[in-house]
Amino acid sequence: GALSGFASSICLQPLDLLKTRLQQGDSVPNKRCCSMIIHVTRNVVASEGPLGLWRGTTATLARNVPGIAIYMTGLNYVRTALAKVQYFAASPQPRVDAGRGSVLPKLNSQGNLLAGATTRVAAGFILNPFSVLKARFESGLYKYDSFLASVGVIFRSGPSELFRGFTASALRDAPYAGLFVVFYERLKKETSEPLPAAWSSSGTSSLMHSISAASAGGLATLSTHPFDVIKTKVQVRSEDRYRGMLVTIRTILAQRGVAGFFDGVSLRIGRKVLSSAIGWTIYEAVLMFMTTPSKT
Fold first, then answer.
1. Cα Rg for the chain, rounded, in angstroms?
2. How many Cα neighbours within 13 Å face the side chain of 5?
3. In angstroms, rounded to a whole number, what is the distance separating the alpha carbons of residues 53 and 156?
4. DSSP code of 141?
5. What is the mean pLDDT of residues 112-122?
6. Given this model, what pLDDT does residue 238 score?
7. Could you tell me the pLDDT band of residue 246, with boundaries at 50, 70 and 90?
8. Backbone phi, psi, residue 90, to 5°
9. Tens of pLDDT along 35-80?
10. Per the count of CB atoms within 10 A, which of 109, 124, 145, 212 is most buried?
11. Where are the Solcar repeats (predicted)?
């Protein structure tokens, strides 16, 4: 989990930064989405240089490496526990084939939804302070001296800042993670069943996991994006009109209408599709490697 979080964070930080910059404003864009992305990218590069697109990478790593490790480890434990409950267990239990498919515990759709949602929210609660720092570093609105200094500032600010935006994050993460696991497991099943046994290989499994995770990430992201916009504004804006989730929702509706809840959606979908493909392919490959007996 830590390895997959590190790889996706380093590769995809520019998409996260551009998404945050698009979401944090409150003016009505006078350009199309693609033009806005190009405009914001040029502004970042012009003012901060090409490496400015990786601003906040340290905060992202502090959030995502332990966060994804906790999430994936916890998800495995929760799924293992739920697999022992008849109501949540997949029926019939499929045969585990480490050379093809997956070694993760198998659940029905209800079990996958519950496991994904509860584990993601729990991990999000633990790492929420770093989620706030990640958003603020990416926004460019906060001038912290260093990452360690920013950690000290936010922890001295008390619970109101440490858990700022957590409600919106939970309302985004619970359905996202639940739907992702449901879609991912279903797509894995649908893509693996038609393949003849002769095609079984680690390469085939990795391709199957990558396609399934990318598709599941895109579908789950589109379903939950409005709460990502709300979370970003709550965490990076200090004005009273962004104090709290309900106040922020009213502000977005008044300023932008329903369209305001989909700012940066293409960037987030792109990031989630790629991060899901990278992260889950690495995660499942490492698990399969660790659980496959060595041939001596």
1. 20
2. 19
3. 29
4. -
5. 92
6. 86
7. very high
8. -65, 140
9. 788 888 999 999 999 999 999 899 999 988 898 889 888 988 999 9
10. 212
11. 1-81, 110-190, 204-289
